[in-house]
Amino acid sequence: MSTRSLADALSERLLDTFPADQAHTKADWATDAMPGPLRHYLTHLLRHHHRREARQLRRARTDWVDYDHPEMEQATHSFLDATEQHMQVPRGQWTDTLRTAARRTTNYLVRPVPTLRAFVFEDAAGAVPVPQVQWRMRFFGPYAYLRNAVQAFADKQDRDAFTPDAFERVLRRVDERMTADFDADRWLDLLDPLFDTARCATDRPQVPLPLLRTFFEQKNAAPLVERLTAHGRTADADAVAPDTLRRLIDAAPTQSSSPEATPMWKQFEQDASRRRTETDGSNDDAQPLWAQFQQRPADGSRQTNASSPPTDVDSSSPSGGRSTASDPDDALSALEREVFGPSHTPKREVYVDALFDGDRDAYRHVLKRLRTVDSWSDASQIISDDVFRPYQVNIYSDAAVHFTNAIEATFR
Q: How many CB atoms lie under 10 A from the CB of residue 195?
């Protein structure tokens, strides 16, 4: 069975549970009938469309309305909050959306690296900025170590964009090294989403042998591929259950160990723990104020249309979805001096790209709001509501830390 056959079988079963003659919301698919990876993809898709709705609303603004007035600001926030709660896949697009999502998530579970490359760069003419790469990767829930590795590599190399080839090289290297010393328990944990998807598609807790062989080939786990091939011949089996797979893994020769003393998966755990220690501090007073944003609700992931790959731009706009209207540079510079202070050199392009998805007008609008407040408490609320939530900013990113620390300094 191919990944497409499994995905199509899954779609047909799900259409019985989630009929095509009605729209569907994320509350509908919060059920065991929907495999976790597919549920994650669809939920992120709704967030993506919510983001596009918010962007279109911002673009519709004109100077005939004082959108900076507190009543208008409150009304806008209330409207966006309401739209977030009532996002849905339209009735006429549900079937195609479900089938496309099933095929993409199934492909990803078996061949994560080529699937991510095709998905992230499908509509890209060249390099893609790191925030957009990360956003598109978030359509897929499992194998989070791949997203972490891409971000870590970008931070270490001070890279602001990826070409398709560079992106794939990083992922392949990490995917092989991360799993190089996995035992049966860790392999089965990694494969749990694929078994879950297969169960929902076939009603059997088994994964077809061809898909498992492809999965291990992608990890360069030749001993396991050989064991699966031999099992298929001797047992005349076309699928494998978790217990059988555990036995085959335990019987396979140990893979060559990584030249590093610490396995790569352990390095990521250690790095994450170290970052938490460094940023959290030993008490509440030691915690940087920008880190307090992590306590605010921020459920926002974003997605695209059923048959087209997710993009962070509106293709109907000649500028690729980024607003072209903005204040002259001298006026914007004056505004930045008011907000950040005369001694601070703002990283304008970094802020616009990393925090506002390239929308310079949105950046200018937030600075105008920040200029009018008198306390860090009010400023932090604006940053949370107008930047971190709608744009789903990683609050630990360099841009977010630099931005919030700079503004906080003007109130301290």
A: 21
The structure's pTM equals 0.63
Q: How far apart are the first and last CA of the chain?
A: 63
Assign 3-state DSSP to the chain and report helix, strand, coil percentages, each to 5: 65, 0, 35
pLDDT, tens digit (0-9, with 9 covering 90-100), for 161-217? 999 999 999 999 988 888 888 889 989 999 999 999 999 999 988 999 999 999 999
Complete DSSP assignment for 31-78: STTS-HHHHHHHHHHHHHHHHHHHHHHHHT--TTS-TTSHHHHHHHHH
Written as six digits, the tokens of 140 are 């897929």
Q: Is the C-alpha dihedral spanning 334, 340, 343, 347 positive or negative?
A: negative
Nearest in space to 219 (alpha carbons), one of 263, 184, 246, 181 = 181
The pair of structure tokens assigned to 33 is 């009938």
- 380 contacts: CB under 8 Å, gap ≥ 6: 289, 292, 293, 404, 408
Asked if residue 304 lies in contact with residue 311, where contact means CB atoms within 8 angstroms, the answer is yes
Contact present, 162 and 133 (Cβ < 8 Å): yes
CA 363, 364, 365, 366 torsion-angle sign: positive
Could you read off the pLDDT of 49-94 as tens digits, one per residue?
Answer: 988 888 888 888 888 999 888 898 889 888 888 888 899 999 999 9
Between CA 219 and CA 175 the distance in angstroms is 6
3-class state of residue 15 by DSSP: helix
Closest CA to 34 of 92, 102, 100: 102
Phi first, then psi, for residue 128 (nearest 5°) are -120, 130
Q: List residues bridging with 89 in a β-sheet.
A: 24
Q: Is residue 207 classed as helix, strand or coil in its secondary structure?
A: strand
- The candidate with the shortest Cα–Cα distance to 133, out of 105, 156, 164, 104, is 164
The Cα 149–Cα 135 span in angstroms is 14
Measured in degrees and rounded to the nearest 5, phi and psi for residue 356 equal -125, 15
Query: What are the sequence ranges of the domains in the chain?
Result: 3-178, 184-251, 322-411
- Whole-angstrom distance, CA of residue 120 vs CA of residue 218: 19
Compute the distance between CA of residue 322 and CA of residue 131 in angstroms, rounded to an integer.
Answer: 15
Look up residue 57 and give its two tokens.
């609303």
Contact (Cβ atoms closer than 8 angstroms) between residue 392 and residue 47: yes
